[in-house]
Backbone:
């Protein structure tokens, strides 16, 4: 059986306030085309279909269109809710949608009930494990304690029990949304730490032929049978080095797995550049980033004048500006109170200017401006006091 494994669509998400709706639509066009042209027999979506619990209408419409297009192809799809989704909202109408071959698994109590498909080698049982928030599902799953490993282990016990009762030779696939030990994280994933431990061992999926994972945004192979597809688009600059893709997974008659990566369309490359403003504006080697979404980190000792506007002239798609001045003179570690003791308002103000500019002290004109401002504040305080 040929499966297409994807996850973490995050429909409705933007990139530094830039709408990604067009890019997400292009990805779904690509997905539908892959299903049609590559002989896909089932689509697996391992959670975080939406970016938030109450997605914008445009995202809901895009998802609705994708469901209709998959249903029109006659290819079944199995989808689970992730930690960004509202399981209850996503699951509304799932009974009716199932009749069109779209199987939305959002109820943790049903994790031991598979979608059964057939190919020329016999049955394949596909189990959907939605994101399991430990404190909320512990009792329903009978887990020993409210931890990620415990609740996912309890869910997998149900999967294995159901599988054991099925005819010999039944192949098995699990969809899960979790942080599995060994996976590489990015800045894009929402923290799911509970009790100090967010990850679960890959061994929790022992006993099934393939585990289609979601949550981490980088495409990763933990074992030949346990993989992340990653997100189809980059959602933070920490993903600048990712190759965005999906997995085509072939499951043979004995349950052996072979997998092929299929690249996703890239709406615009990401670039992280760093250095003093003037070098970023003049360096000919940075010309290749002029069509990219850019994050610029300025290392100037003080903030240059209108850096974003100046950078945008060269990099029209710059979306993020970070200030990280090179280290100035070493600072004393004396306490704040100790550093202020015996110092005048003027001296404190000048110290502040030097601090925020990483060691460059105020010049004569700036000291005069500070003195004038302090005198004006004192005059206002005096007038208020007289008025009382």
Residues:
């Amino acid at each position: 059986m040929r499966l297409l494994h994807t996850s973490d669509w995050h429909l409705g998400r933007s990139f530094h306030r830039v709408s990604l709706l067009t890019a997400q639509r292009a990805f779904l066009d690509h997905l539908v085309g892959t299903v049609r042209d590559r002989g896909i027999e089932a689509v697996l979506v391992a959670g975080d279909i939406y970016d938030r619990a109450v997605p914008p209408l445009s995202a809901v419409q895009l998802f609705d269109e994708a469901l209709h297009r998959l249903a029109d192809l006659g290819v079944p799809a199995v989808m689970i809710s992730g930690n960004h989704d509202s399981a209850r909202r996503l699951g509304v109408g799932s009974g009716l949608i199932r009749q069109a071959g779209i199987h939305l698994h959002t109820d943790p109590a049903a994790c031991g009930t598979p979608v059964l498909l057939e190919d020329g080698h016999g049955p394949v049982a596909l189990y959907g494990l939605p994101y399991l928030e430990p404190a909320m599902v512990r009792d329903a799953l009978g887990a020993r304690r409210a931890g990620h490993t415990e609740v996912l282990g309890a869910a997998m016990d149900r999967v294995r029990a159901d599988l054991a009762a099925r005819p010999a030779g039944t192949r098995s696939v699990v969809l899960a949304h979790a942080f599995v030990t060994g996976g590489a994280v990015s800045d894009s994933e929402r923290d799911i730490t509970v009790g100090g431990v967010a990850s679960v061992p890959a061994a929790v999926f022992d006993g099934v032929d393939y585990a289609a994972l979601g949550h981490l945004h980088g495409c990763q192979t933990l074992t030949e049978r346990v993989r992340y597809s990653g997100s189809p688009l980059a959602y933070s600059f920490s993903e600048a080095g990712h190759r965005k893709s999906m997995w085509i997974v072939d499951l043979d008659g004995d349950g052996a797995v072979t997998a092929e990566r299929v690249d996703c369309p890239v709406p615009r490359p990401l670039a992280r550049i760093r250095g003093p403003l003037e070098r970023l504006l003049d360096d000919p080697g940075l010309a290749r980033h002029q069509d990219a979404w850019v994050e610029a980190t300025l290392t100037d000792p003080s903030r240059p004048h209108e850096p974003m506007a100046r950078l945008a002239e060269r990099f029209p798609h710059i979306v993020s500006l970070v200030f990280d001045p090179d280290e100035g003179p070493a600072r004393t570690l004396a306490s704040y109170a100790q550093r202020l003791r015996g110092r005048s308002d003027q001296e404190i103000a000048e110290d502040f200017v030097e601090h925020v500019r990483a060691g460059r002290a105020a010049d004569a004109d700036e000291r005069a401006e500070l003195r004038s401002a302090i005198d004006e504040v004192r005059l206002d305080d005096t007038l208020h006091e007289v008025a009382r």
Observations:
- The longest strand covers residues 122-129.
- The chain has a mean pLDDT of 90.
- The chain has eleven helices and 19 strands.
